[in-house]
Amino acid sequence: MTPYASFSYFALVALLVAPAVWLGWRGRAAGRWILASALLMLVVHHAPSSNLVPGLGRIRDLWVVLAFGAWQWLLARWLLAGGGKKAPAGRFRAALALALLPLVAVKLAPVLAPASRIGFLGVSYVCFRALDVLFAVRDGLVTTLAPGAYTAFVGFFPALSSGPIDRFRRFLKDYEAPRSRVQLLADLDHAAWQLHLGLLAKFIVAALIKQYWMDPAAKLPGLGGMLSYMYAYSAYLFFDFAGYSGIAIAVSHACGIRVPPNFNRPYLATSIQDFWNRWHISLSTWFRDQIYMRFLLANTKAGWLKDKQLAASAGFGITFLLMGLWHGIAWHYVLYGLYHAVLLSGHGYLGAGAQGPALHQGARVDRRELAADHQSGLFRVPPLFGTPDGSAWAGAALSRRRPWLAHHATTSRKPARSAGPAVGPPPSAAAMCGAANQ
């Protein structure tokens, strides 16, 4: 069953989201239900299909996914057992290389064995989540690894197939913490906007672009036809992918997991730096934190490249070459990566941006993840029911429409002890839920 592609899938998602909302209304953590939902959707997504492995024949995707999850879990536990942050560098490199093996096999299979089918839905994104756990263990940010939380993170179904790519430490805070009713209603407020925009972008705008522009442009001859198709495909790709991301963000927030944003009007960017701050944000920040910044950190310690801009350019080359290969083992993906690396390097050398290159923007060489502003998503738009933190749900708007609901939304069963009179505006939902990096 393809995610977010049929009414039956949306109906199933609604049935899985409803208990998480009810638990939030009751002030209870939804972690166990999120884990149960992930396991159920594991069967829904993977049971019907199978891998075709040379020499082994057909193997159910479900067994491949379970073996993949167990493999990644054992590697993370092995790294923890070796000391985590204090583990020898060789052990960390070995764990990283072994964790990448399944993804490398999936990427190389079409080249080495075209008749084979190796992989499963969302393998690239799931692998990135597993790698994030290894990096967090290595950096000393994760010192314990509960199997339930790990499984729920790696198999989190709303963002399974194409992201957004979350971080384990940030995920854990939402997974383990109960929501107040104000937080729940703020999440639903944000989810409603993202769902509506996602449906509009994916099923209406992208579909119209494909039917009336992209498909006809594919039949046009000459340079004009090629340019028309290029721009049509770029527009279709954005609205289709951003629409999917909006839907995934909406479902995640309704479940209480505030995954990071993925797009912020990228085609309105004023430079290549600005573009990569807006396009596929969760992927670009993952590569920045785990590849680019680690290269700069290693270069600073080893002193390979003394010139900072040269080091940044080398970092761009490595990062975007890997990003291109992640898309696929093909020459055009390699050129795609090198093209963007050259653009970003040129942008840095020319001093076009006051804040430096996109992947270098605001980047101190530390290993903490960036806090995800969950108010950003498909587009920057005002919230559906009022203030950015959704407090209009719990305050004035509800008191005007349904006073009894406003009373329940703003009243906790176990009131928190106050440290003094409230001063200033109400905190945002992100502030109430805690900064992701503290």
Describe the protein in words.
It is a single chain. The protein is built from 17 helices and two strands. The radius of gyration is 23 Å and the shape is globular. Residues 352-358 and 360-438 have low confidence and may be disordered. Strand 1 (50-53) and strand 2 (57-60) form a beta hairpin. It is mainly alpha-helical and 438 residues long. The chain has a two-stranded antiparallel ribbon with strand order 1-2. It has helices spanning 7-25, 31-46, 61-81, 89-112, 123-138, 147-154, 168-176, 181-217, 222-255, 272-276, 281-302, 308-327, 331-350, 391-394, 396-401, 403-410, 429-433, and strands at 50-53, 57-60.
List the main descriptive attributes of the protein structure presented here:
438 residues, 17 helices, globular, disordered C terminus, mainly alpha
Structural class: mainly alpha
Instruction: Give the helices and strands as they follow along the chain.
Output: HHEEHHHHHHHHHHHHHHH
* Global geometry: globular
Main sheet makeup: 2 strands, antiparallel
- First-last Cα distance: 38 Å
Q: State the low-pLDDT regions, or none.
A: 352-358, 360-438
Report the sheet-strand fraction: under 5%
Number of strand elements: 2
**How many helical stretches?**
17
Cα radius of gyration in angstroms: 23 Å
Mean pLDDT: 84
Give the strand order of the largest sheet, numbering strands 1, 2, ... along the chain. 1-2
Q: Helicity range of the residues?
A: 55-70%
